[in-house]
Amino acid sequence: MGNHGILSGMKKAKAKVLIDTFHLNNSISGIGTYTTNLCLGLRANACNEFEFIEYPTLERSLASSFFKGKTNKIKKGLYHLTYFIWKQCVLPVAAVIKQADYILNPDYISPYFSNKKKIVVLHDTLFWEYTKNYHPLWRKYFVSLIEITLKKCDLILATSNYTKEKIIKIISPSCPIETVYQCHKSLPSNDSNALYENYLLHVGTFDNRKNINVLLEAFYLTRKKYSDLKLVLVGFEGSSKTHTLFEKTSVLIERLSLEEHVFITGYVSESVLSNLYKNATCYVFPSLDEGFGIPILEAQSFGVPVIVSNRGPLLEIGGDGVVSFEALDPIDLQAKIQLIVSDLTLKNKLVKKGYENLKNFNLDHFAEDTIKALKTINEF
Fold it and tell me: For the chain, first and last CA: distance in Å?
């Protein structure tokens, strides 16, 4: 048979990919959703080239609650210290023990002192563009850490083509970049009575780039014709005075005399969020910048028509299942809201297109595209 015959008959060893899930100890949305769905998708899709190892296991990281939710300065400091030690000390050792060939980091930063191939997910470039949104010392530390570790990175995964272009323009990394679309979290069904009636919905932290003031102004104008319409704002008030829009929003609501028509819920459970999506008249996403736009997909999954600004990747993610408006023009947004509220045919068309758009964003595609991206640097 000869050596060639023996070698050709041998089964090719799978490359081992260690997926870092540690940040799930702190993250409850955004990157947390990305990592959770990535692990679930890879579990459900057989792969001949790679063996995926979650470290810690997804269940263990999700179960940890010490650093989740509102924390004091001591806990925040402890988390950042623990995170640094994990990334630069624990993770490289774990990769050796697990005999991993790759370390996949879904949260911007990879180990610097490791000879393993490293893949990093960059969800956006907000740290570089919106400097005032973050504490200056923390931002300098975190951005420096990202940029230093990127120098030894083998592949960057971007969450959208928009984000990929921004990464190339702003960060200019030396390693390849591949776009891999993620998917939304499947929220539990909730058949209880609607918490509100006839309302617009927005889900997101009170951050200046969320452009909520334009939404409020458009809502005010819309109510002149549709006086029974309401607005529900879901999300955290914000963790820092340097980027919270909550106080300005409250002042604007009072100035426009909308106190009885705008409902600010704060953070809500997944069950409540499901109820809010399911019964919404329309979902409005006026953001000036995003890395992806998960709420678009969440709204579409509940058969809700979606309006987005013409900024960032929102049209890229929403596809034909959304209508857009000029981001800084409340009159244009008012016109789009009134169009959907008054035109049942358009509303049904958007719902149908939204369901079709969701076919491009599911666990299978997420896993398959990730594997495809990894193959570009696989030498096994």
Answer: 24
The amino acid sitting at 257 is S
State the Cα–Cα distance between residues 380 and 378, nearest whole angstrom.
6
Average pLDDT for the chain: 92
Q: Is 30 exposed, middle or buried (0-12, 13-18, 19+ CB in 10 A)?
A: middle
The domain of 144 spans 10-183+362-375
**Residue whose token pair is 């592949």:** 155
User: Do 108 and 123 form a contact (C-beta atoms < 8 A)?
Assistant: yes
Cα 328 to Cα 53, 209, 242, 288, 337, distances in angstroms: 45, 11, 22, 9, 15
Bridge partners (DSSP) listed for residue 262: 231
Structural domains counted in the chain: 2
- Quote the CA–CA distance of 363 and 367 in Å, as a whole number: 6
**In a shared domain, residues 249 and 107:** no
Q: What is the pLDDT of residues 303-358, one digit of tens each?
A: 999 999 999 999 999 999 999 999 999 999 999 999 999 999 999 999 999 999 99
Residues whose CB is less than 8 angstroms from the CB of residue 205 and which lie 6 or more positions away in sequence, other chains included: 235, 236, 238
pLDDT digits 0-9 by tens, 253-281: 999 999 999 999 998 999 999 999 999 99
Q: Has residue 3 been placed in a domain?
A: no
Determine how β-strand 177-179 pairs with β-strand 199-203. unpaired
Entry pTM: 0.93
> CA–CA separation, 46 vs 302, rounded Å?
29
Same domain, 178 and 210: no
Would residue 380 count as lying in a domain? no
CATH number of the domain enclosing 126: 3.40.50.2000
158 and 217 fall within a common domain: no
The candidate with the shortest Cα–Cα distance to 75, out of 84, 83, 86, 67, is 67
